Amino acid sequence: MAPHVADRISAHLNDGRLRVVGGRVLELRWEVGGVTATWRPRGRTTLVAERARWVINCTGAEGDPTQSQNPLVKDLIATGMAHADPLNLGLESDNEGRLIGPDGVAQADLFGIGPIIRGGLWEVTAVPDIRLEAQRLADSVAALLKSRQPVAG
Questions:
Q1: Quick check: 53 and 44 in contact, CB under 8 A?
Q2: How many CA atoms, within 13 angstroms, populate the side-chain half-sphere of residue 18?
Q3: N or C: which end of the chain has fewer CB within 10 A?
Q4: CA–CA distance, 16 with 14 (Å, rounded to integer)
Q5: Are residues 39 and 76 in the same domain?
Q6: 11 HSE (CA, 13 A, CB side)
Q7: Is residue 58 assigned to a domain?
């Protein structure tokens, strides 16, 4: 991380405004002025509910998409719109980020970006890489939309 970011994080850790904890988040309930997080601390069985202004999830990318509890990922796989890459790190995609179905055919207008397609495009997990991928994806979607515009005549 950039040194100025590290300095700000250190300052917040030192003044008590930021706390780093390990465990599994089970529920986030948004409320006026903050959020109540219900979580299970690592190595414990009891649940903790705490109110905070912010919750930062630093768990990283989800693992095997075939085991995902994410409703969108589950539906994409169940309907055959996508499938796991050969390493089960994410969803399979082509070089343009188009998701590939189990039949091996890339979807014409269904794209992935970031960690969900890291099996094929490994360097898509850091912000600078995702920024470049987002620009590439925006260009691809713009070209797709332009190709679908009716011709005036």
A1: no
A2: 12
A3: C
A4: 6
A5: no
A6: 6
A7: no
In degrees and rounded to multiples of 5, residue 149 shows phi and psi of -70, 135
Task: Report the length, in residues, of the chain.
Answer: 153
Answer yes or no: is 59 within a domain: no
Tokens of 142: 């713009």
Residues 42 and 99 in one domain: no
Domain that holds residue 82: 65-148
Calpha distance 102→84 (Å, rounded): 8
Q: How far apart are CA 77 and CA 106, in angstroms?
A: 14
Whether residue 57 lies inside any domain: the answer is no
pLDDT confidence tier of residue 27, bands split at 50, 70 and 90? confident
Model pLDDT for residues 122-147, shown as the tens digit of each residue: 666 677 777 888 888 888 888 888 88
Based on the fold, state whether residues 141 and 70 are members of the same structural domain: yes
Asked if 2 contacts 19 with a C-beta cutoff of 8 angstroms, the reply is: no
Q: How distant, in Å, are the alpha carbons of 7, 52, 55, 91, 130 from that of 114?
A: 27, 28, 21, 11, 6
